[in-house]
Amino acid sequence: MSTNGRIRAAYMQQFAKDELFPLLSRHPSLDIAAARNAAELRDILPGAELLIANNRFYDEEVGRIVMAHGQDIRWIQFWTAGIERGIRFGMPRGIPVCAAPGVKGPTVAEHAMLLLLASFRRFREIEQARTRRDWIRDRMHETARTLEDATLVIVGFGAIGQEIARKAKAFDMRVITVTRAGRAGPTVDQAVKREALHEVLPQADAVVLCLPVEPDTVGMFSDAEFARMKRDALFINVGRGDLVDEGALIRALTAKRIGGAALDVTTVEPLPEDSPLWTFENVLISPHSAGCGKDGSERFNTIFAENLRRYQAGEPLIGVVDWEKLADGVAV
């Protein structure tokens, strides 16, 4: 606690233009300081009982600083849905660690639909033709596809997957979900467990990955999975790069075993300049930008305000992750 009884918080601020920090600063019970890099985090962390962290920028150096100087931390709140980098690089045990599920769900789902539509409607070809001043309408009859009645397999059905399913149904798609428990919903035509993934992949006109990295999801899409897909099926990843064996994806694209890919995430980010993924005409790449947008800051602030109230009242927090089991390699 601060000397004035307010909660001292350290905030990992990574962007020069940050819409979230002003929102957090308005909470009257919060005494918050921002750190733009690891060195600044080291300076403000001692005495802070709350760390507001960002999974994307939680690297090895940050992990060392948090473990060495975060002895007063009593609660870690990520302003991202994922926390796998925090697990990898170290967090104090025995305290609640909260993710922010749903904070970017609508935005990421919109981006997934953008990638799906751009691929099916051959927007790259249209744009390339525009630069040549080439009217390619006749050719579009042979290449453009429609989402209506197409089957979308959504692997993962959290906040993002649910939003993708809702938007896909608005385009009259058939939706199949693949989850650990076979979770369904009002916008789902068929729901299966992960063990049945290979059974539904041959039905897919498009597959979208939107699940977190856990011990049993790392590399879950490899040669065997791509071999089960249709030769004209689209593979979309808006989850995490580590979900995919990137070498297997490159082999599938090279052999034309799948119709194409649309990637917002890759195993190494930024994607190296010498990656073969840059060279495929049937691959769309966005720079891990699916979650970008000002609305996410306001959504997170709403979640955070409720958790702050609960923390002060001694009530259970929203989005608590059993990260100790995940860190120990136990699937939950």
Provide key terms for this protein:
332 residues, alpha/beta, Rossmann fold, 5-stranded parallel beta sheet, 13 helices, elongated
Structure description:
- With 332 residues, this protein is α/β, with parallel strands linked by helices.
- It folds into two domains: 7-101 and 293-327, NAD(P)-binding Rossmann-like Domain (Rossmann fold, 3-Layer(aba) Sandwich); 105-285, Rossmann fold, CATH 3.40.50.
- The chain has 13 helices and twelve strands.
Helix vs. strand class: alpha/beta
Distance between the termini: 33 Å
CATH superfamily of the largest domain: NAD(P)-binding Rossmann-like Domain
Q: What is the radius of gyration? A: 21 Å
Architecture of the largest domain, CATH level 2?
3-Layer(aba) Sandwich
Strand content: 15-25%
Compressed to H and E, one letter per element, the order equals: EHEHEHEHEHHHEHEEHEHEHEEHH
Instruction: Report the average pLDDT across residues.
Output: 93
Q: What shape does the CA trace take? A: elongated
Question: What's the β-strand tally?
Answer: 12
Helix segment tally: 13
Largest sheet: 7 strands, parallel
Helix percent band: 25-40%
The tally of structural domains comes to: 2
Report low-confidence residues grouped into runs of 5 or more.
none
Query: If strands are numbered along the chain, what order do they take across the biggest sheet?
Result: 8-7-6-9-10-11-12
The CATH topology of the largest domain, please? Rossmann fold
CATH class of the largest domain: Alpha Beta
